[in-house]
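In response to the reviewer comment on reproducibility (Comment 2.3), we provide here a single inverse folding case reported in full, input and output, so that an independent group could reproduce the run without further information from us. The structure tokens appear first.
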């Protein structure tokens, strides 16, 4: 049997959907299990022992319709028996339709349901700690007679990566005996980034409570923004921040994060990666993102999260995510750090 799972776009999505492979391997131990993902997300699933092959969507494929068509034809020639389309957008609709697979599974949409043999309706609520993002993905396995209650994404770092990052931290003056905290200072865009002045106050609180060592998660092209947040922090806080110590690649970031006591900051891929490394997290959700979907494995003093809706629910009464999104920046101004100061302090005491 040959099975293809399609999950395009964001790092957090690709990592979360990788949970399907361990379950598939247990049910079909001799099957060929392949993963179609964007090339820039490969780092979070590298070395996964349950995945046989990776089909990478490069920027060229995304830009040129002819390249996407060629990819779809290549997938067809692979003769997959099952295609699980987690992404469920136009490009994956095309790839799945042309695949020739007898079993095609995706989420239910009225305008694409005819393309699939099994259309799974997403749940809108769950009382399971693993969260909706996990629960809904696991539903996609049910047509294959695989029913499991929960699964947690995992990242597979090598012993060499861990040792190299450890020595790098030590060489930069980091003490592994003191609290080491990674800050997700920037989101994937302005409407997913906690206001700079508020983030600075959060970092001030972290240093004041823990006397810890602070690392910023950012990439070189975000240096100006990261520096701006650094400049807004109190002088004493700045003495605890190692601005020149950051991962220059996703794998380097992962290896550094593996040695941290916690990751705190904007919701996004960094938070999902930290959870997959079993690192404690405290997540500040964007004002328009649905917390119920992405606060996976929420647990007191382990994985905690805050959202403006937790404190001012009337602002969201009767409004969908789509309606709230255009007002994200205005809502951020209402999401002041004092709202969750006590909750953050209690979390910090657990480190």
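Designed residues, in position order:
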């Amino acid at each position: 049997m040959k099975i293809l799972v399609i999950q395009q776009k964001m790092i957090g999505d690709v990592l979360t959907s990788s949970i399907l492979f361990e379950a598939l391997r247990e049910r079909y131990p001799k099957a060929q299990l392949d993963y179609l993902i964007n090339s820039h997300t490969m780092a979070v699933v590298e070395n996964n022992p349950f995945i046989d092959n990776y089909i990478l969507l490069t920027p060229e494929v995304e830009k040129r319709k002819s390249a996407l068509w060629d990819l779809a034809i290549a997938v067809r020639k692979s003769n997959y028996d099952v295609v699980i389309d987690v992404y469920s957008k136009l490009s994956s609709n095309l790839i799945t339709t042309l695949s020739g697979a007898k079993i095609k599974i995706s989420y239910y949409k009225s305008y694409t349901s005819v393309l699939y043999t099994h259309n799974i309706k997403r749940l809108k609520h769950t009382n399971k700690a693993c969260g909706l993002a996990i629960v809904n993905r696991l539903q996609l396995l049910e047509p294959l007679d695989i029913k499991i209650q929960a699964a947690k994404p995992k990242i597979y770092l090598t012993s060499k990566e861990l040792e190299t990052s450890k020595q790098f931290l030590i060489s930069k003056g980091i003490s592994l005996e003191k609290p080491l905290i990674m800050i997700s200072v920037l989101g994937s865009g302005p409407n997913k980034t906690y206001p700079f002045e508020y983030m600075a106050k959060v970092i001030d609180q972290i240093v004041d409570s823990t006397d810890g060592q602070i690392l910023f998660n950012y990439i070189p092209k975000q240096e100006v923004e990261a520096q701006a947040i650094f400049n807004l922090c109190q002088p004493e806080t700045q003495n605890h921040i190692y601005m020149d110590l950051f991962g220059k690649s996703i794998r380097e970031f992962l290896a550094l994060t593996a040695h941290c006591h916690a990751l705190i900051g904007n919701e996004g891929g960094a938070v999902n990666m930290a959870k997959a490394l079993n690192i404690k997290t405290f997540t500040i959700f964007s004002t328009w993102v649905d917390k119920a979907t992405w606060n996976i494995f929420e647990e007191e003093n382990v994985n905690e999260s805050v959202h403006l809706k937790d404190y001012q629910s009337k602002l969201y009464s009767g409004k969908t995510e789509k309606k709230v999104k255009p007002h994200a920046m205005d809502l951020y101004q209402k999401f002041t750090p004092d709202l969750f100061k006590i909750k953050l302090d209690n979390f910090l005491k657990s480190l």
